[in-house]
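Section handout, structural biology tutorial.
Before the tutorial, make sure you can parse a SMILES string by hand: atoms, branches in parentheses, ring closures as digits. In the record below the ligand is fe (ii) ion, and the chain has 214 residues. In the tutorial you will relate the predicted structure tokens back to the input. Do not try to memorize them.
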Amino acid sequence: MNALGRKRTFTENLILQVDAALKTLANSAVATRPNPAQSPNPALTAREKRLSAQCMRVNHAGEVAAQGLYQGQALSARNLAVREKMQQAAIEEVDHLAWCETRLIELNSHTSYLALFWYTGSFMIGAIAGLIGDKWSLGFVAETEHQVMAHLNSHLDCLPAIDTRSREIIEMMYEDEARHATNAITAGAASLPGPVATLMRLMAKVMTTTARWV
Ligand SMILES: [Fe+2]
Ligand SMILES: [Fe+2]
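Predicted structure of the complex:
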């Protein structure tokens, strides 16, 4: 629904998509919730800073991809309730984007230079999933969120132990992603065929390996 309480037109939806894409790619995400990183900034060595920045850049790239996926699905989802759920989830993911961006700035580092590529690739996958049908679209969300949760867990293992600020962000993101996955399953997500889930894991591997460096 738009601010006038009527169903959004295709043009209004398209404008929202473009707005979301520009905000994501221009690194100008604004969080609506307080940053969970509340600990003082730890004194990291140059090596620890580099390691933390690599993890947070991968997380940020994942959030850029999540934006693309959700916006693509919101564009092509058939059911209005599903479309609005996708848009709501995308809004929540904006917090993750903003928190990762802030942490990367604190670490004197940068977001992935390939953000446009991560966004457009995921947008197309999301739009196709939405066209195939809402239960498959929701299935993509559940699978994506489960894979993101596994990544976030692995980052908690590899981050420098004293980087509590990055840890606080990742822990909050993990909680949110778990809720997104549960919501998708409750809304009727179909379980994806094994080869599709494997292909998604492969694509995620390409992104996480590349975004670590560029
Ligand atoms: Fe997220
Ligand atoms: Fe999520």
